[in-house]
From TrEMBL:
Alphabetical list of PANTHER family matching this protein: POLYPHOSPHATE:AMP PHOSPHOTRANSFERASE (PTHR34383:SF3), POLYPHOSPHATE:AMP PHOSPHOTRANSFERASE-RELATED (PTHR34383)
Protein name according to UniProt: Polyphosphate:nucleotide phosphotransferase, PPK2 family
GO MF term set: polyphosphate kinase activity
Transmembrane segments: none
InterPro entries assigned: P-loop_NTPase (IPR027417), Polyphosphate_phosphotransfera (IPR016898), PPK2-rel_1 (IPR022300), PPK2-related (IPR022488)
Keywords, ordered alphabetically: Kinase, Transferase
Keyword Transferase part of the UniProt annotation: yes
Single GO biological process annotation from the record: polyphosphate metabolic process
Residues of the Polyphosphate kinase-2-related domain: 33-259
UniProt cross-references to Pfam families, sorted A to Z: PPK2
Length: 277
């Protein structure tokens, strides 16, 4: 099963898009997809992800940075759990970016980000990222439009630097409808086991839905061939997981990691049994 969704969902390099033109629960040709078949296909893709990650780790010459951005309730945490769970923990780390600390505020906004980028052989997952500094800060008036555009230029240059140093970047915007966000927020309120996931400030951000849409559309224009954005329909979690898995497999296959060549002749070595006492 191969939906070829990456071409449909990828934001054209350097172009601004209208989020209203992208569906939150489907994509062209997906209407006939069967949920159980898609779940089975996702499991196969995750097995392939595991194989490719092992080669990436063993090769130790390039790295992969996965960026997840979404509105509140968009599914970033569950994406990390369900999709990134295919990776060996020894070769991946997840960075969660929240409000900057006093120390971080004494540096440029990319200082704390650069410390979390993956070293060669590794995969890093950013659950929120440097894009928060052109989203939350802009919507809440902490920076003006001119500063936001300046930060976007810095981000493009920063990602080019990482690319030139051997880090492949893939960016996912989990595209959620306001109706689905409302349902997920209500689910958190109605289930005591999920109360910890609810933050009253999320309601303030929900009231700024259109302002966030405008900010995201500007951020998505940073899509480049070396750091593409993908707009993932996120209302249906099983479809979201499949699409992200497919795109990650395609990305790693393009990177084409290889096991390193051994510098010894395996046939010359004999591993003897341990004698009993």
């Amino acid at each position: 099963m191969n939906s070829k969704a990456s071409q449909q969902l990828q934001v054209p390099p350097g172009q601004k898009v209208r989020l209203a033109d992208y569906s939150t629960d489907t994509f062209e040709g997906s209407a006939a997809l069967d949920k159980e078949q898609v779940k089975q296909a996702t499991e196969q893709l995750q097995q392939r992800l595991s194989e490719l990650q092992e080669k990436l780790y063993a090769e130790g010459k390039q790295s992969l940075l996965i960026i997840l951005q979404a509105r509140d309730g968009g599914g970033k945490d569950s994406t990390v759990s369900r999709v990134m769970g295919a990776f060996n923990p020894n070769g991946v780390h997840v960075a969660n970016f929240k409000a900057p600390t006093d120390l971080e505020l004494q540096h440029d906004f990319l200082w704390r980000i650069h410390q979390q980028v993956p070293s060669h052989g590794m995969i890093a997952v950013f659950n929120r990222s440097h894009y928060e500094d052109v989203l939350v800060t802009r919507v809440h008036g902490l920076i003006d439009d001119a500063r936001a555009q300046q930060n976007l230029e810095h981000i493009v240059n920063f990602e080019k630097l990482l690319s030139d140093a051997g880090t492949r970047i893939v960016k996912f915007y989990l595209h959620l409808s306001p109706e689905e966000q409302k349902a997920r927020m209500e689910d958190r309120l109605n289930d005591p086991a999920k109360h910890w996931k609810f933050n009253p400030s999320d309601l303030k951000d929900r009231a700024l839905w259109h302002e966030y849409t405008a900010a995201y559309e500007d951020a998505l224009a940073t899509s480049r061939s070396y750091a593409p954005w993908y707009i993932i329909p996120a209302d249906r979690k099983w479809l979201r997981d499949y699409l992200i898995s497919e795109i990650l497999v395609q990305t790693l296959e393009e990177m084409n990691p290889q096991f390193p060549t051994a510098h010894f002749e395996a046939a010359y070595y004999l591993i003897e049994d341990i004698p009993s006492r």
